[in-house]
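Researcher: For the annotation table, I need structure tokens for Tripartite tricarboxylate transporter substrate binding protein. Please keep the output clean. Sequence:
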Amino acid sequence: MKLFRNCGRMMFKGLGGALVLSAGLSAVSMQARAQAPAWPSRTVAIVNPAAPGGSSDPLARIVAEVLAKDFGGSFIVENRPGANGNIGAAYVAKAAPDGYTLLMSWTGTLVSAVTMYGSKPFNPMTDFEPIVLIGSIPNVITVDAKLPIHNLKELAEYAKKHPNGMNFGSTGSGSSWHLSAELFNKVMGVKMTHVPYNSPAAVTKDLVGGQLQTVFPGTMTIASLVKEGRLRALAVMAPERTSVLPDVPTTKELGYPQLESATWMALLAPKGTPKEITSKINKAINDALATPAVRNRLISLGYTPLGGTSAHFSSYMADEIKKWDEIVKFSGAKID
């Protein structure tokens, strides 16, 4: 009996020691958290996986301005171009999840990483924390103004009559320019030939020069050429008209609601970035998008302001991947 009593006292003493140790560790952990510098305590890099001067640059700089004003500190835009945005995006996916490296990316990079690549450099659904959708630019169906094509039906008929003579240009395999045209091929039952380029300027140069017959770019890229009469815009691939080309009807208006395509821009962080940080950023961006000053700046660049929760962004991206995966399989396009 004495032995059992001693054992009981030893067990209680051991348990008490463990509780003291646990409490001590908790106190140390709380003290460490209390002593940790508040975010951001140093420069935050917003990686733009495109070359300086592209259409994503102004938006990335607006985001950097908004966050710097809201949180103080330094937010910089860091360009890491290459491989349709995959180089910069892969860099962020491998970065420390501490809130000091963010990614500004878009449809052509995030969706294509899943749908186009045999060897995926990253998975947008599992390698990132989705923060917020920022804005989108609708694609527009345009043709060489010298062609006898004035609407979508005539474009489809022309493509059927010239099966080897309809070339469409894009800024690369998997880009929104490319996939928008493949969506048109699928919906309208035609087959136009894809010709990829390295830059928007090269595409529009060959379209105006007659080497290409059609292109499906973002509205801002070709708005001036449409207004000059060098290109003819047939339809904006969106439910609502755009302020950039207000006289151009939408595909929905014309009876083709399934012909919808836009390049959306969003902010993401490496997987595991603290929710406390991503939630702060989400709120800051949403608050900014609700102000006339920021909204008008986006609209002037051709963007439709978006916003919303991170959960909404995640769900939306999953739907986009599913939608465009069907188009990629239809086209047979693949990048190894």
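Researcher: And a one-line annotation?
Model: Residues 44-136+263-331 form a domain with the D-Maltodextrin-Binding Protein; domain 2 fold (CATH 3.40.190.150).
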